[in-house]
């Protein structure tokens, strides 16, 4: 195989009660990437369509992640060209950088005959995330690479668990075109939390994981709360409270901030409910005269796909 | 039915990463209780064998829990006599009060034709726990009533989830005859925890719950850590570090404080390993010249049993 074309999906990190550990993969939106073998060693990003992002290797998450893989493999003579067709907007909070970082390592790994497992690829993709956010986090790249829901149990060593997905689960995501800098979203966090809130949070995360294994949508709904991060970060997202309340009023199982925002997600049990939620969420931002993108998607159980 | 004889098992609360939410039920040790209908209304504790505990209703967890049930049912004319044969030592940290409180409500519910579900009985049994510890906690009474592993997701309203049990899982519990007052065990806790430690804890609890659903003993083992409570409480239990290290050296999947101590538990994958751990743990306390009881038990998937 000389060339591969990929679909690299958006992802929702945290999912309310799973700050820094939980993530899920979407069917839509997603980027496309073409990766091909090249005679010149290293990685060359030859084209980026749809967004104004740097082509230089060391400034692009795909380049950094891909080079991390090649360095580990000591494939110093291998060369790859990468084209990126961005549909996921950077800064939207649905894993734009993760899609590119994960896509690069997935594609290169395929073209090299799969020397690494999908779980091993997470480590390389995390290097791309480090460039994007200054933190080695895996809660977007893990679901992008493995699909479904993922739990990053530990970083040291990396321990990622693939969780099952209830078949009817749908996601709605609205991206208001407001800028929330990841640095701001980080700076509002407190270094300590009350033991009481922490207990509530781990009770909810435990319940949510049980719900995923038992297809218990009611339990899932009861667990989709975040008493720790959401109260701090939601103030950075104008309209958050109203959008969330609207989603719940239209049948969402739960709603919260996607990653560090500003996108807001809602989970629901059917496509028609998910669409209704999308329309109701959009009404809120139209009223506020804020531009938005809205997405309705099944949970993507495969992750990155070869097209 | 006029009379019922019950086996009321010991339980392990917290189970390392699940402070205040997780509990599991043991096959051994356990109390026996005889509960019979009586012509005089209310509850009379007529006999307690094995421990010096108060017979007065309002001072005994079984009386308080039983009356909570009768009050809810408005069965003001119903009367019951209770005999308690204690094998679980009060203050041991393996749910002695929970066994009595849960046993009382389970037995009375049976004799009344089961007006309440097992989950509903938890609320009444918690009233007994309130008498014993000053807190309305359910992490011992829930596994005593439901069996297996239980997750108390929320108290307001009460939301308890029954979790599956990997078939080969065994518990070893050593009870050093040292007094750790529940009040002391509570007073060493801090009101706040670092966000970093909280994330580690909910990652581990999430992983542990996944491990229970997938019979993944390795994952279970990786998750049996407590970076929040154990470092604070273990200093109240002389020999804790050595007992825990010994259990792990003899093949335990994990080891920690049972409830608020002083009992120390270890989980393992086979009866022979569980017995070996018991003998090694006992050696430590023999060396320290501390008396102890040691128990080896399967996980009890039924909870309280009618004998």
What report would you give on this structure?
The structure is a homodimer of 307-residue chains. With 307 residues, chain A is an alpha+beta fold. Chain A folds into two domains: 3-163, Ribosomal Protein S5, domain 2; 170-298, Alpha-Beta Plaits (2-Layer Sandwich), CATH 3.30.70. In chain A, 37% of the residues lie in helices and 27% in strands. Chain A has ten helices and twelve strands. In chain A, strands 1, 2, 3, 4, 5, 6 and 12 form a seven-stranded mixed β-sheet that branches. Chain A has a four-stranded antiparallel β-sheet with strand order 9-10-7-11, with helices on both faces. In chain A, a hairpin with an 8-residue loop joins β1 and β2 (22-38). In chain A, α1 crosses α3 (118-133), α2 crosses α3 and α6 packs antiparallel against α7. Chain A starts with a strand and ends with a strand. The mean pLDDT of chain A is 95. The interface between A and B is large, with 38 and 38 residues. Chains A, B: Its EC number is 2.7.1.39. Chains A, B: It is an enzyme of class 2 (transferase). Chains A, B: Keywords: Kinase, Transferase. Chains A, B: It comes from Mesonia oceanica. Chains A, B: This is Homoserine kinase.
């Amino acid at each position: 195989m000389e060339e591969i074309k990929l679909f690299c999906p958006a992802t929702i990190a945290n999912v309310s009660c799973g700050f820094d550990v939980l993530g899920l993969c979407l069917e839509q939106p997603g980027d496309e990437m073409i990766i091909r073998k090249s005679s010149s060693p290293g990685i060359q990003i030859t084209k980026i369509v749809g967004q104004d992002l740097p082509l230089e290797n060391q400034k692009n998450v795909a380049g950094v992640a891909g080079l991390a893989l090649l360095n580990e493999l000591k494939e110093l003579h291998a060369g790859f060209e990468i084209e990126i067709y961005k549909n996921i907007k950077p800064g939207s909070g649905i894993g734009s950088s993760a899609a590119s970082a994960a896509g690069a390592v997935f594609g290169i790994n395929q073209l090299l005959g799969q020397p690494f497992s999908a779980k091993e690829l997470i480590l390389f993709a995390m290097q791309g995330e480090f460039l994007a956010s200054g933190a080695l986090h895996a809660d977007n790249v893990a679901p992008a690479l493995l699909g479904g829901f993922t739990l990053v149990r530990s970083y040291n060593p990396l321990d990622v668990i693939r969780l099952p997905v209830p078949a009817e689960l749908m996601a709605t995501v609205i991206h208001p075109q407001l800028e929330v800098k990841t640095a701001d979203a980080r700076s509002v966090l407190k270094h300590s939390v009350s033991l009481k809130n922490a207990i509530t949070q781990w009770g909810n995360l435990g319940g949510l994981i049980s719900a995923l294994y038992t297809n218990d949508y009611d339990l899932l709904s009861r667990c989709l709360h975040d008493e720790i991060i959401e109260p701090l970060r939601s103030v950075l997202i104008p309209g958050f409270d109203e959008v969330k309340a609207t989603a719940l009023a239209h049948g969402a199982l739960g709603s919260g901030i996607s990653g560090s925002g500003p996108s807001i997600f809602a989970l629901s049990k059917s496509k028609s409910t998910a669409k209704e939620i999308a329309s109701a969420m959009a009404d809120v931002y139209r009223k506020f005269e804020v531009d938005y993108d809205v997405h309705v998607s099944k949970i993507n159980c495969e992750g990155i796909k070869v097209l």
